Amino acid sequence: MVPILYYVVLDGFAIIISLILYLNLIKKRSLMLDEVIFRFIILCNMIVLVADVIAWSTDGCKFLGARLVALISNSTYYILTGVVLFLSAVYITTRLSEKHTIEKKWLITFSIPILIETIMILLSPYTHWYFYIDSENMYHRGSLYLVQAVIGLGYIIYAYVYTIIKMIRTNQATRKRECHIILGFILLPFITSLLQAKFYGLPLIWIGTTISILMFFVSAQNSQLSLDALTGLNNRGKLDIYLEEKVNSHKPNTYLYVIVLDIDKFKDINDKYGHVEGDNALTALAKILHKTCENGKDFVARYGGDEFTLVCVRKGTDDINPLLSRLNELIDQYNRISNKPYSLSVSYGYAKLDGTKEKSVEDLKREADHHMYMHKQKKQIP
Q1: Which of 121, 166, 302, 317 is most exposed, with the fewest beta carbons within 10 Å of its own?
Q2: From its phi and psi, is residue 317 left (phi > 0), alpha (psi between -120 and 50) or beta?
Q3: How far is residue 145 CA from its own chain's centroid?
């Protein structure tokens, strides 16, 4: 009776968490592909937990239809266990891909092991491959029980290696941070599965999976709160926090640059070509700025409207001119290949904190704004 009580309490706790997360995501009408997959992971996780409770609660019971309930609950548990691991690997691949999409051919090939496993599970009541229910309605592991562990481990290893490769190849600090979070998302269920193998009779793997999903969900929500919805860059709130930290922790032997820039004649783009094209110009510049700062050392944010801000730290004699030159080169390159009816150009100004004079965050912003205004005057832009 005690093991059943453990299952009801622990699984019940995890079910409530999964349900709350699922209901929260179901409210969002417009979801990216990776968010849709993540929602299915939560749903499958919740169903697995319910099936787990039913399977253990009815194990050895002899009531009308008990055998059928045992077969359905155990089959559901086995099938969705593999599906959760499969979807997790697909989710990570989609989230870390450049376009947040996946190729159909890859998906079909990748799903072959889970499809074969599902067929084997459905045949298990007759073949006893994965599990079987004896005449006393007691559950027993089948002769090929470890096959599921091998397939599941394969998906976990793939996801882990894929994330490591992406983390090594990127120079973007935010991207590396995301990879670290995903590695934690993979690692916790793996550790709890090892513990469950040692302490058989407790649903540790699904508690670990649920906690991992919760942590990842909270992290994703926090990231969304600090990101600009249109461009995907850091927003003004994140900028203010970051800039305040950098000013307060500034070291005398370093230079802190605050660069403010906006799109020249942005109002004309909106008026002549519409607000959709205006949004396209903003997202195009955001990508250019992101590429300009892809070394991972520099911080870029959308301040508001068509105005963007970069925060850069340089040591010794290093200055900001190479970065500004790269920005201009990327804008020129964009204009040559964009086929837009307008040319994208920016005006910018910057302020520097070098340790010779105390400056507040507001001082830096005002100084950068003033230099941007002077830059516009030189280019004769109203």
Answers
A1: 317
A2: alpha
A3: 33
H/E run at residue 379: helix 361-379
Q: State the angle between helix axes of 173-198 and 66-96 in degrees (0 to 180), rounded to the nearest 10.
A: 160
pLDDT band at 99 (very low <50, low <70, confident <90, very high): low
Q: In three state form, how does the secondary structure of 47-73 look?
A: HHHHHHHHHHHHCCCCCCCHHHHHHHH
**How high is the pLDDT of residue 199?**
67
Neighbours of 156 (CB within 10 A): 18
DSSP letters for 117-140: HHHHHHHHHHH-SSEEE-TT--EE
pLDDT at 379: 73
Residue 248's pLDDT band (boundaries 50, 70, 90)?
A: confident
Paired sense of beta strands 299-304 and 254-263, if any: unpaired
Report, as an integer, the average pLDDT of 254-258.
Answer: 88
CB of 266 closer than 8 Å to CB of 281: yes
Query: Which two structure tokens, joined as six digits, stand for 304?
Result: 């508001």
pTM of the model: 0.67
- Angstrom distance (rounded) from CA 58 to CA 346: 69
Measured from the Cβ of residue 98, the count of other Cβ atoms closer than 10 Å reads 6
Under DSSP, the state recorded for 143 is: T
User: What's the rounded mean pLDDT across residues 21-32?
Assistant: 73
Tokens of residue 372, six digits? 């941007």
Q: 79-89 b/e with 16+ CB inside 10 Å = b?
A: bbbbbbbbbbb
Residue 189 pLDDT: 79
DSSP per position, 237-248: HHHHHHHHHHHH
pLDDT of residue 172 exceeding 70, the answer is no
